[in-house]
Specification:
It is a single chain. The protein is built from seven helices and no strands. It has 144 residues and is an all-alpha fold. It has one domain. The longest helix is centred in the N-terminal third of the chain and has 24 residues. It is globular and about 40 Å long.
Length: 144
């Protein structure tokens, strides 16, 4: 197998895992709202998730594990997407917070500052911060 195919396979696997995490958040209340669905379609395009994969992941998101990226910047981008999904549904509760906490730990954020990271991430996205500003806020909450 060529190096390019290995890279593509790992890249797609990480993207499917991230997309499945977004679907899990959307489904915490057992339904996907139109706002959540719009965000899922946008992210699917960005992650190169085709229609068949999209439908498979929607049907069974737990089949796709989290595959955290190695670069901190990419982890911040994943967290940014996750928080946008959480906020796409106005009913943010304990289930979403619990799942977001697990996903953040799975992405490699330090467990001893996870509450601070999540609070800062939610605040930053609510303020309409772009990814770069968001990333700067998140970096300030923990030591890499």
């Amino acid at each position: 197998m060529s190096f390019d195919k290995l890279f593509d396979k790992g890249f797609k696997k990480r993207n499917r895992g991230h997309f499945a995490s977004l679907v899990r958040i959307a489904l915490t209340d057992h339904k996907i709202t139109s706002e959540e669905l719009q965000l899922l379609h946008r992210v699917a395009d960005k992650l190169q998730i085709d229609v068949i994969e999209f439908n498979q992941i929607i049907k069974n998101p737990n089949q796709f594990p989290i595959n955290p990226p190695s670069l901190v910047e990419h982890r911040h981008e994943r967290l940014y997407d996750l928080v946008k999904m959480v906020l796409a549904d106005p009913l943010f509760g304990n289930s979403e917070n619990s799942l977001l906490t697990k996903l953040c730990i799975g992405l490699g954020f330090p467990s001893d500052s996870i509450e601070t990271v999540i609070a800062k991430a939610l605040e930053s996205v609510k303020n309409g911060d772009d990814l770069e500003t968001f990333s700067n806020h998140i970096t300030a909450t923990y030591s890499v």
